Amino acid sequence: MSRRFPFTSFPQGWFVIAFSRDVSPGEVKTVHYFARDLVLFRTMEGQLSAVDKTCPHLGAHLGGGRVEGNCLRCPFHDWAFDAAGDCVEVPYAPKIPAKARLGVWQLLEQNGLVFVYFDKSGRSPTWEPPALEEEGWTPNKSIRWEIRSHPQEVAENTVDCSHLRPVHHVLKTEVLEMEQNAHVMRVLLHLVATGQVIGMPDEINDVHLDVTLRGLGWLVSETHVITSGMRTRQRIHPTPIDEERIAIFAVGNTKHMPDLDYTAEIDEIFWQAFVLDFAKDFPIWENKSYLERPLLAGGDGPIGSYRRWARQFYSEPGAAAGAAAPRVSPAPREVGALHGFRARLGVAREGLLRIVDSLRPAPVLAQRADEVVDAHFEGPVGTRAAGTARAPASTLRQFPSVDSYFDTLERRFDPSAAGELEAVFQWNLTGPSKLDHFAEVKRGKIQVAPGVHASPTVRIEMSAEDYLKMINGELNGALAFSTGRGTLRGPVRLAMRMQRIFPLDA
């Protein structure tokens, strides 16, 4: 179909062609996917239908029609078609022609998205994507992009482990599990990543990324930030527009935490981070060449296995590019790791060719995850307090009490980090060591005082015992807030700046 992508057809499967909100009751909308126009219309009762653009009467484009009750009226001669595509009225004729029917697409509407099933040969689907749990998750945040690429390229990023470090600031990647079962593929990754994408490059996070593919148009990634106890879900749906271009529909949700206001702010931060980080791949996808026989190296991830799995979604034998085995050049020191990786995935019974070409080891770094963290900070992953950057052990102050923290607050204030900021930070600490304290920051100057300010910008509420653990690096602040051990009021992004405004180092 294309010089860039040597596929002989679009892949078959379920693909998103709209957000549910795009078509209201009584509305008709034309969309262009699979190199053709499709017409969407929603009846007044709310039923959505996707049909071919052409009226079988004299060929009018039905995208110019209108909804009347539960039917679509052709703009040319007013023929009426119901949601199933059957002609139910010809206004000026007593009899409806026997073949007066529209081409109707198999349609599924769920979780705020509109899917249609594409198969070049016209076969019916043998599976449907499952509806996702919505209770306990934040409302959908969504975006649609258009880029020059192919659905298979987008999903391949799931197993392309070695690009995560240079493109996405991931320090370490490890494939923990991989399963392929008919149209479903699941990969569980363990990542050690910086907080670069949310503006906190010194933060080190332990992350599990659980990615499930159902065909090449349905990708759901569940992210568990172990360090902070937060969970998000990203849905990525690439759909062919034509032989060169795709649309990517993306939806994000965050798992509810005890504090719903905090959840809403974290949800926005995660979503903006996802939108920014995911788009880093776009210029690469748009300009790269698809190599049928890529020269892979140890550490690239199970790209060969992914490509063989993807072949099933093309109508013709050999339609999927990559049918030839990728060439591999493993480094000598990785041979042992490669054997162990295969053993963990249970592929010992597969043929030699499949073993060689299927699964590549996760990137092998000279350091383990905890050693990577120790290279930046003293202490294990996940012990840094939110709002408090971990300094090297040689300069990190250990506070004997919360009183000592506030006694030194003014001296530790960094006016250059505060800049032109005008804000009031309030601490309300409970328990035997109960105290209230605030700091008013105004254009590089600070005023601290005990008590409660009338209108704080940021307020931290938690037990004095937990706060002492947090400032001494024994309790992760984000984990405390996400699990209800503390409450944060006010802009989370401003609270994140506290690590620089009130540094803990001596």
Describe this structure in words.
This protein is α+β, with helices and mostly antiparallel strands. It folds into 3 domains: 13-118, Rieske Iron-sulfur Protein (3-layer Sandwich), CATH 2.102.10.10; 141-358, Naphthalene 1,2-dioxygenase Alpha Subunit, Chain A, domain 1 (Alpha-Beta Complex), CATH 3.90.380; 382-501, Nonspecific Lipid-transfer Protein, Chain A. Helix content is 21%, strand content 32%. It is built from 15 helices and 24 strands. The strands form 6 sheets. The chain has a 7-stranded antiparallel beta sheet. The protein has a 5-stranded mixed beta sheet with strand order 22-21-20-23-24. Strand 14 (200-214) and strand 15 (219-225) form a beta hairpin. The longest helix has 19 residues, at 260-278. 38% of the residues are buried. Residues 318-395 have low confidence and may be disordered.
Superfamily (CATH H level) name of the largest domain: Naphthalene 1,2-dioxygenase Alpha Subunit, Chain A, domain 1
Strand percent estimate: 25-35%
**What does the average pLDDT come to?**
84
In whole angstroms, the N-to-C terminal distance is 64 Å
**CATH class label of the largest domain:** Alpha Beta
What is the general shape?
Answer: elongated
Give a brief description.
This protein has helices at 151-156, 164-168, 260-278, 282-287, 303-310, 335-344, 352-358, 369-376, 402-407, 409-412, 415-418, 464-471, 477-482, 492-496, 498-501, and strands at residues 13-19, 28-33, 36-42, 48-52, 66-68, 71-73, 80-82, 87-89, 107-110, 113-118, 141-148, 170-181, 184-195, 200-214, 219-225, 230-240, 245-254, 295-297, 327-329, 422-430, 435-442, 445-450, 458-463, 486-489. With 506 residues, it is an alpha+beta fold.
